Amino acid sequence: MDTRHNGTRVSRRSLIGGAAAGAAGLSVAQLQAKAAAHGVDFTSAHVVRQEGQAGGRLIYGLGFDLDGTMDPQVTNFDSTIRVTMNICEPLVWMPAADTFVPGLAESWTISEDGSEYTFVLKQGVTFHDGTPFNAEAVQFTFDRVVANRLQTEGTPAAEPDIVILSGQARDHLGPYSHSEIIDDYTIKVVLTSAFTPFLSGINGYLGIVSPTAVRTMGIEAFARAPVGTGPYKFGEWVENDHVTLIKNPDYNWGSSFFSNTGAPFFDEIEYRVITDVSIRTGTITTGETQYIDAIDPLQLPDLEANPEVEVIKYDQPGSGRILLFNLDREGPIADQNVRLAMHYALDKVAFNEAVYGGLNIPAASPLMRATVGYDPTTETMFSYDVARANQLLDEAGWVMNGDFREKDGVPLRLEWPTQQREPDVSTATFCQGAWREIGIDVNVEILEPAILRTRIREEIAYDITPLWFSYADPDVLRTIFWSGNIGNFNRSRLNDPAVDELLISAFQAIDPAERASLYAQVQQMVLSVGATIPLVDTIVYNAKRANLEGDAIDYAASYVWLNSAQFV
User: Fold this and answer.
1) What are the residue boundaries of the Solute-binding protein family domain, all occurrences included (predicted)?
2) Domains in the chain, ordered, with CATH?
3) C-alpha to C-alpha distances, 525 to 385, 520, 521, 532, nearest whole angstrom
4) pTM, two decimal places
5) Tell me, what's the pLDDT at 55?
């Protein structure tokens, strides 16, 4: 049963389908014992509740840690942006599909051919270091995103000491060429071609940074203590534990979209890293946290029955939880029949129940259903069919030898390196068991994050790797499958000129129907060649204390706006 409520809060007493229905959550005593083993103190429950008081502190429970940086142009993690978006604001915010509201830009115009965006910037805005926000800061921010790319192409960066290895921000800028400063508060962004997703791309990951801070602090120090224009300033970062933000009392340039355009209500926000889902959910019940992301499915019925807690549920656009196969890899994974057999052998309904408590939706496409451009015909391309999986392997010459298959003496053994983080481990172990049933031996190796990044990006020593993107535009398919992104997020290493042409034509197209048609072809092609297996479309289940009001979630359903948040 599809229980989605797009953009709504779930009733505390609504019936929930799936494995979570009727499941009893852990008792407070059990949670206290489990929490103590993880260094979480439940004894302070309710102390931080600040009903009816000005100021105070909001504690936000993060489901996973930052990725070693707080530089908004370097990070690849949504968890990092959930923090830094309060420090470094973008030019625009995106509350809904095709809806953009002012951030640091008052207004903007787009050239007829879609290749130039001219922004009129807010005046009177200052960075946390006291320097003025202006067009030069926007140019500096955008240029640093592409500096590494230009250097790779043989064009020296204007300031080589600020060249960063940009993360997801690089894809969000698309075919960025340069920016022209018209005056202190007007800037023209020039692209090499039309790029329809540009406005959605500069929301979130493209927080504007202080040029002075970057130059004086240096790249590494700035990544530890970023400087922006936001309602909160950086306070403290203790890795694997917490990030503290401090109120910016001078802030008075908030977006007209927010009910509060002045200084925020809280004196501090503490983003506390609580990776254990049951403990994190327990903290919202006791009041130790006042907002958390990704609740424990087993505790959902109790949360909904609790008058002091509110569950927030949103469909997400983007890629969903998908698997990518390394198409550059020699060995069994190079056999298309093997990849397609693995798709047929996965029971996605059972996967959703086992890994997510039935709270997500089994996926058919690398685009989630909530994404503009989703192709519903992909739902008929694959089904759970073990007989078909075995048939494909038999036809390809992979014969059983004991518990596993082999061909010409080569065992059907695949490598899946992953990190000790949920749902990564449970995803790998579920798939490992499913594929064992058809004679495929998958070695799941749990690695430290830094070692895993080396294995994936430098050594390219993997057959299977998971990926997930909350993304406001179907251009996420370019991020994942464009040959120009091999070595970055194209971890299938797909290099197909036909797919590339479709992806480029799609981001250049302005007509929505034309874009949808092009993206439909891409979805069908990457599924047909076995480059990916979509697992689930993710649905956000956050929770907050019922006395917290004024919070809001962006269209990607990943970023929580707290400009107007307060206890009542």
Assistant:
1) 100-485
2) 8-86+216-316+540-567 (3.40.190.10), 92-211 (3.90.76.10), 321-537 (3.10.105.10)
3) 21, 9, 6, 10
4) 0.85
5) 87
